[in-house]
Structures are given as C-alpha cells and as structure tokens.
Backbone:
C-alpha cells in the first residue's frame, strides 16, 4: 500500500501545488511507471474541478482526469493508476464518497490493487478511520459517516499551536485534547503545514519541508512533539523509518 497523507496543498499562494512533496511524489510516479491519475475533487466547493486537474497535471508531470470524464466515478477509480484526493471541505467530500459508491472502490483500489493514494487536507482526513478530527464545518451534513480507513490513526492537518491575540475560543490543542477525552482509546497525529506521512512497502516515514515536528495527542498523556516517526510505532502496523 502506498499513501501520501499531506497536511496542505501549498506552502505559499504562488507556490506550485504539492511542491514541498514533489521529490517523493515524482520518485513514486517514476518507480511505479504511472502515466495518469484520477483526481477526486468533491471537497472543492468554490473552485473549478477541471482547473485543479490541469494544475495537478503540471505539478506531477502526468495526465490528470476528473471522474466526469469517465463512464462513472466508480469506473474512474477502477481504471486509475494513481488516486489524488484534493483538499477542501472534508464533510462534503466524505458524504460524496459515500453517495457515489467510492468508499469501497477506493479501498479496493488501494488495498487490493496497490494503487497509490495521494491526499491533502480533506483528502488526508478521509484516509483515516473517520473525519472527526477535521477542522472543517459540516456544511452538508452533520452525520459522521465512516471514512476510508486506509491509515489507522486519526490525523489533524493544518495543525497550528500559535495563540492568536484576541481569540477567546478553544485552541487547537484544547479541541484535540477534548477529542481524546471523549474517545480515550484513540490517538491523533497533528501535522503542521508543509509536512506529510508516507506509507510505502509497509514502511512509514515522516517529512517536513520546514524541519518541524509533529504532535501526538493521547488521553491521559502529556502532548508530545516528535521529529522521529518511531514514536508512532505502537499505533501503526507499519515499520517506522527515518525520512
């Protein structure tokens, strides 16, 4: 199984899409002999799906198509050499995956056929067991449906532990601690911007373009920051390796 679970799509507004992961993504595409990809665009609410596909084509150096260019969304996944799931609104994305019959289609593609999966932000969220640690608003439905479950631990993308002056609401740390208090058997990996987890050949690696840490939230334990992915070894079935 090959997974790229990225916190965000850009490191700056004018930066190419997924630029901070280009070395690893291009190496995977070359290694697997991939010539095309299918973009799952349903998290995008105010953007253009075709434009995002063209942008990805430029970024990845391969043809990227949207499901509407196939006989059906399921047919698109069944024919995919690479599955790319865009960021946007996680609630809408997860609901659309269920409505279009793509949950099982993507699970089979990734687990049984070995099709690589690349997801950022919302696309990262839906790769975990559920979307309960997304930062997004439930604009479409408040029902928490199961997600893809390709990765066994909850992830919080776009993690930020800065304190904004004048903000009187809960911090991200407090919200994630609340999640763990309500779900004490679960853990949350908090990924900062420009960082990602990569699963390949049953190995897990962590990358940060800025050399920053990730945080691990677990009920009853102090919040800990790590650079070393070995900290996740008790939580994942993959062999943890340095980047």
Residues:
């Amino acid at each position: 199984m090959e997974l790229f679970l990225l916190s965000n799509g850009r490191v700056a507004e004018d930066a190419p899409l997924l630029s901070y992961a280009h070395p690893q993504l291009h190496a995977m595409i070359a290694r697997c002999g991939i010539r095309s990809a299918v973009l799952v665009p349903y998290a995008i609410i105010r953007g253009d799906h075709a434009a995002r596909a063209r942008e990805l084509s430029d970024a990845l150096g391969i043809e990227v198509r949207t499901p509407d260019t196939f006989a059906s969304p399921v047919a698109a996944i069944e024919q995919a050499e690479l599955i790319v799931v865009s960021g946007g609104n996680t609630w809408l994305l997860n609901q659309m995956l269920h409505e279009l019959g793509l949950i099982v289609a993507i699970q089979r593609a990734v687990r049984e056929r070995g099709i690589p999966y690349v997801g950022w932000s919302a696309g990262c969220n839906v790769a975990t067991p559920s979307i309960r640690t997304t930062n997004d608003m439930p604009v479409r439905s408040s029902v928490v449906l199961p997600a893809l479950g390709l990765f066994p631990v909850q992830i919080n993308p776009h993690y930020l532990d800065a304190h904004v002056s004048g903000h009187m609401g809960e911090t991200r740390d407090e919200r994630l601690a609340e999640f763990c208090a309500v779900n004490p058997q679960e853990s949350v990996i908090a990924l900062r911007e420009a960082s990602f987890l990569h699963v390949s050949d049953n190995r897990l690696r962590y990358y940060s373009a800025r050399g920053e840490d990730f945080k691990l939230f677990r009920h009853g334990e102090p919040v800990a920051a790590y650079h070393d992915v070995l900290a996740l070894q008790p939580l994942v079935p993959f062999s943890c390796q340095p980047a």
Q: What stands out?
A: The chain has a mean pLDDT of 95.
